[in-house]
């Protein structure tokens, strides 16, 4: 499978999902190869603005360096399969929001990293707790479908159910720290 050749079934699952999803290829500077409507409505970036770019374009002048470092470390750590990262981001029109970014790695049969799939969630809304619970339920279901679709192409994705289930406590920690 060529590096950027995205299996149709995987692309369709990403497009169908109502949670924000972004997929990057592991080659080079990890450019995005697919973003869905949820990603565009959350960030304001249409696919034509986002594709072929590293997703760090969502960061801005006030994004704390340690938040970026945590993601960078995760992506470089071959032993890590999934993670959940709060990061201060900016929409296309300049609105700041605290993004809770879930990431999971897709590997080939030899264990080589091929893609990284991410889901973004805006924790700034007043009803974030309820919205996150709903988002997680959809994300959990979608991840099962995505794992199945990826598996058909020999791509292995770890089961992130446990991590997704912990996102409410991650949100609680962020809110607490910000008070
Ligand atoms: C698929 C994918 C989605 C990502 N989504 C976001 C995001 O929504 N917001 C963000 O600030 N960083 C996101 N990142 C992280 C950045 O792209 C980048 O990896 C991070 O800034 C650390 O690398 P750097 O130190 O080279 O910038 C994402 C990364 C990947 C691979």
TrEMBL record:
Annotated Gene3D superfamilies: PAS domain
Q: Is Flavoprotein among this UniProt entry's keywords?
A: yes
User: Can you tell which superkingdom this protein's organism belongs to?
Assistant: Bacteria
Keyword DNA repair belongs to the record: no
Q: Which regions span the lipid bilayer?
A: none
Q: Which UniProt keywords apply?
A: Chromophore, Flavoprotein, FMN
Q: Which PANTHER family match?
A: PROTEIN TWIN LOV 1
Q: Which NCBIfam families does the UniProt record give?
A: sensory_box
Name of the protein this chain belongs to: PAS domain-containing protein
Q: What is the lineage of its organism?
A: Bacteria, Pseudomonadati, Pseudomonadota, Alphaproteobacteria, Rhodobacterales
